[in-house]
Design a protein that fits this description.
Blueprint lengths: L1 H9 L1 H10 L1 H14 L9 H49 L1 E7 L6 E9 L8 E6 L4 E3 L1 E4 L9 E8 L4 E9 L11 E7 L7 E3 L1 E5 L6 H5 L6 E4 L3 E4 L7 E5 L7 H4 L5 H5 L4 E2 L13 E3 L4 E2 L6 E8 L4 E11 L8 E10 L4 E8 L8 E6 L5 E4 L4 E8 L11 E8 L5 E4 L6 E6 L5 E10 L9 H15 L2
Helix pairs in contact: 1-2, 3-4
C-alpha cells in the first residue's frame, strides 16, 4: 500500500486526477490488497516460511509488475491532460487583472468610456468587469473592429468624478457567457420594401457604373442610421454622404420603431422626427473634397460601401468607405474610410477618417450647414457652432419649423483655415495628418426635455464639450 500513500501525500493532485480518470487504479489497489492481506496467516513454521517466502517473493514481483504497468499507463494518459490543466491555469491568470482609470476630462462623468485592447489575450468571447469600490458588475461590450473574426476591444462605461481614480477588476473568458447589458445604442441599414421594411443589412455597397441615386432609393431612410438615447442621425448613401438629424423629445431608442419616419400615432405618443433639411450643404459635418475654391462631392469612386461595425449595447460604430476616390483629374485616387462612433449617454459623434496613403497634395473640407437666420459661434481654433430655426423639408405645410444647435470641433493640427460663413455653410479647409483626420460633432434639438433651449446656453456647452473631446 506504499504506492497509494506516496501518491496521496506527495502528489495529491495526481491521486485525485487518477481517481477521476482511471477506474482501473482502484481495481488494481483492491486486487493487490486482497492478494497480500492473507499472506501473514500462512506463516506457520520456518520450513513453511522458506517455501512461502519464495512464493511471496514471486507474488510481490507480480504485484510490482502490475503497479508499474498501471503507473506507466496512467502517466501516459494523464500527462497531456496535466499540460492542458496547467496551460488553462496560466491562461486564466493572464486574463484576470485589476486596472486603475483616472477621469482626466475635468468634469464629472456618468458614462466615462474605457477601452481595453484585447491583443495578446487570445480568444475573448465574454468578460466580467467589476467596479472594486461599489463591488458592482458593470455592463460591457466586446467588438471585432476589423471584421477578421477576432475580438479587438473590450468597452465599458464608468461613473467617475472629475480627477477621480477608480479600480476595476477585468476578467476575460474564451467561452460565451450571457451578457444582459440593456441596449443604449443602435444602428441599422434597412432595404426598402413594400409595407414596413424588415430586411436588415450589416453592409451595403455598389460599384462604379451604378446609376446615381440608385442606392439612395434602394435603402430605407436612404442610408445607415445610428442612435443613442440622446441623438440620432442617418448618412445618405450618395455622393453627398451627408449626416441628417433626427430630434427626440424624450431620452430613449426610437429608430427601430420609427425607422426615421414616425407615424402620426407615434408623434402623438411623443416620438421624435427629422429636424434638418441638408440639401447639398455640409449638413451635420459631412467630409468633402476641396478644389481650392469650393467643397466638392465624393462623386467619382470605384466602390461605395456603408457597414455596421457594432450596434450596441454601449456604443454604435458605422463606416462609410469610398474606394478609388478620384478627388480631381490631377491626382491619383485614394481610398477613404470614415468611421462614426456614438457612445451611450453622450451627445456627440466621433469622426475618424482614414486614408490608405499619404495625401500631402490634397485638401478636404467639412463644417456645418448655415441654418437660416442662425447665430454663429467660433473660437477660431477649430471649434464652431450655431443656433437657429428652419423647416426640415421644402414642403413647409407638412412640417413645423425646428430649432436646434449644432457644433463641430476639429483639433488644430488638421485645420488649414476657417472659411467665412456663406449662405450654405460654416466651413473649414482641412488636411490629413499621418493619413488621418479626426473631428467631433454635437447637436441638441429644442424639442428635448433633457437638452438646451437657447443660443447662450448652447454656446457655453460647446466650450466645455470641446475640452472633453480633447480627452
Amino acid at each position: 500500500m506504499r504506492l497509494v500513500y506516496r501518491i496521496s501525500k506527495k502528489s495529491n493532485w495526481s491521486f485525485l486526477a487518477f481517481g477521476i480518470l482511471d477506474n482501473s487504479m482502484d481495481e488494481s489497489i483492491a486486487s493487490v490488497s486482497s492478494w497480500t492481506a492473507p499472506i501473514p496467516r500462512l506463516i506457520t513454521s520456518s520450513s513453511a516460511w522458506t517455501s512461502r517466502r519464495i512464493s511471496l517473493t514471486a507474488r510481490m514481483k507480480k504485484i510490482d509488475e502490475v503497479r508499474s504497468s498501471n503507473i506507466n499507463g496512467m502517466a501516459r494518459r494523464l500527462f497531456p491532460l496535466l499540460l492542458l490543466l496547467l496551460s488553462s491555469v496560466v491562461a486564466e491568470a493572464n486574463n484576470q487583472w485589476v486596472m486603475t482609470v483616472e477621469n482626466t476630462t475635468g468634469v464629472d462623468q456618468t458614462d466615462y468610456p474605457v477601452t481595453i485592447d484585447l491583443k495578446g489575450h487570445g480568444t475573448v468571447l465574454s468578460a466580467k468587469v467589476t467596479d472594486l469600490h461599489s463591488r458592482q458588475a458593470l455592463p460591457y461590450q466586446i467588438d471585432d473592429l476589423d471584421r477578421d473574426g477576432i475580438n479587438d476591444e473590450l468597452f465599458f462605461l464608468a461613473k467617475m468624478k472629475a480627477g477621480e481614480k477608480s479600480s476595476f477588476q477585468i476578467e476575460l473568458y474564451s467561452t460565451y457567457q450571457k451578457n444582459e447589458t440593456p441596449a443604449r445604442t443602435y444602428a441599422e441599414i434597412v432595404q426598402r420594401t413594400k409595407g414596413r421594411p424588415d430586411i436588415y443589412l450589416s453592409e451595403f455597397g455598389l460599384q462604379k457604373g451604378t446609376p446615381d441615386g440608385t442606392a439612395y432609393n434602394l435603402l430605407h431612410h436612404h442610408g445607415v442610421a445610428v442612435e443613442n438615447e440622446l441623438i440620432a442621425f442617418r448618412i445618405y448613401f450618395d455622393q453627398r454622404q451627408t449626416l441628417d438629424l433626427y430630434g427626440k423629445n424624450h431620452k430613449g431608442l426610437e429608430l427601430r420603431d420609427t425607422q426615421f419616419y414616425p407615424t402620426a400615432a407615434q408623434k402623438a405618443a411623443g416620438y421624435g422626427d427629422d429636424i434638418l433639411w441638408v440639401g447639398r450643404t455640409f449638413g451635420f459635418g459631412a467630409l468633402r473634397g476641396w478644389n481650392g475654391n469650393n467643397p466638392t462631392m465624393v462623386s467619382d469612386v470605384g466602390t461605395r460601401v456603408q457597414r455596421i461595425i457594432a450596434s450596441g449595447p454601449l456604443r454604435a460604430i458605422v463606416e462609410v468607405e469610398d474606394r478609388e476616390w478620384r478627388t480631381d483629374s490631377l491626382h491619383a485616387p485614394v481610398n477613404l474610410t470614415i468611421r462614426y462612433t456614438v457612445i451611450a449617454g453622450h451627445r456627440d459623434v466621433a469622426v475618424d477618417a482614414r486614408f490608405n496613403r499619404p495625401t500631402p497634395e490634397l485638401r478636404f473640407a467639412t463644417g456645418l450647414i448655415n441654418v437660416r437666420n442662425s447665430m454663429e459661434f467660433s473660437d477660431h481654433k477649430g471649434l464652431r457652432g450655431l443656433w437657429g430655426s428652419d423647416y426640415p423639408s421644402e414642403d413647409t405645410l407638412k412640417c413645423k419649423k425646428e430649432t436646434l444647435g449644432m457644433g463641430i470641433y476639429i483639433p488644430q493640427k488638421y485645420v488649414v483655415r476657417e472659411l467665412k460663413a456663406d449662405k450654405d455653410n460654416y466651413g473649414f479647409v482641412i488636411r490629413a495628418v499621418d493619413n488621418r483626420i479626426c473631428y467631433y460633432l454635437t447637436y441638441s434639438s429644442d424639442n428635448e426635455d433633457y437638452g438646451y433651449h437657447s443660443a447662450r446656453k448652447w454656446f457655453v456647452y460647446l466650450r466645455e464639450w470641446a475640452k472633453v473631446a480633447l480627452h
